[in-house]
Amino acid sequence: MIDRLVLASNNRGKLAELQAMFAPLGIALVPQGELGVPEAEEPYRTFVENALAKARNAAQHSGLPAIADDAGLCVDAFGGLPGVDTAFYAMQYGYPKGDDHNVTALLEQMRNVANRRAALVSTLVALRAPEDPEPLIAVGRVAGEITREPVGNNGFGFDPVMFLPAFGQTFAQLPPEVKNANSHRGQAARQMLELIRERW
Predict the structure, then answer these.
(1) Burial of 76 (0-12, 13-18, 19+ CB in 10 A)
(2) Is position 159 annotated in a ligand binding site?
(3) How far apart are CA 185 and CA 107, in angstroms?
């Protein structure tokens, strides 16, 4: 069983969530920046292809098994966009890159949109080596509705505007342990842990 995985991300929020989720397996997640791994190109239009590219890049540069997460917001009224472009969403509307700007831009674009349905999607890909012919792939998806304004102080990304009817709250209002148990990334991480146990 492996004891270290390089995480193909330098996003502190992602790292903290995934480290908490992988702790039960005794697997340490090392952010790629600590190992001098450069950011990967993400030219693809699907989460799974981008996650695979990031994982391959991290495994190649580090010599360790790697895991990558590609996640985003898929808004029904926008035909599933911003999707893979979620991290850069605000920049399309003249704002600097960043979570708060993404939220501002989204709320502006949805000001007169009645259909508020959206899903947060997380695709995790893990590889034993860059040429691994059998990447492990896990997908988590949480559907909800985009609020009219941000609510709550926990989490990151679109958490303050992602309202979950099952909880009657946004992700940003939920305690971290509840969010992690029910989030798109939480779902994908649980599937991935099972796959790692079973296959590796």
Answers:
(1) middle
(2) yes
(3) 23
Q: Is 70 a residue of the active site?
A: yes
- In the chain, what are the domain boundaries? 4-199
SS3 content of the chain, % helix, strand, coil (to 5): 45, 25, 35
Each residue's pLDDT, cut to its tens digit, for the chain (200 residues) gives 688 999 999 888 888 888 888 888 888 999 999 999 999 999 999 999 999 999 999 999 999 999 999 999 999 999 999 999 999 999 999 999 999 999 999 999 999 999 999 999 999 999 999 999 999 999 999 999 999 999 999 888 999 999 999 999 999 999 988 988 899 999 999 999 999 999 99
| 99 in a labelled binding site | no
CATH number given to 4-199: 3.90.950.10
Residue appearing with tokens 């309202």 = 163
Closest CA to 160 of 194, 169, 131: 169
Residue reference for tokens 């330098």: 10
The answer on whether 185 is annotated among ligand-binding residues is: yes
Nearest-angstrom CA–CA distance, 72 and 9: 14
Instruction: Considering the candidates 70, 99, 100, 132, report the single residue annotated as catalytic.
Output: 70
- Distance CA(22)–CA(28), nearest Å, equals 7
CB 163 within 8 A of CB 147: yes
**Residue 54, annotated ligand binder?**
no
Asked whether residue 71 is marked as a ligand-binding residue, the answer is yes
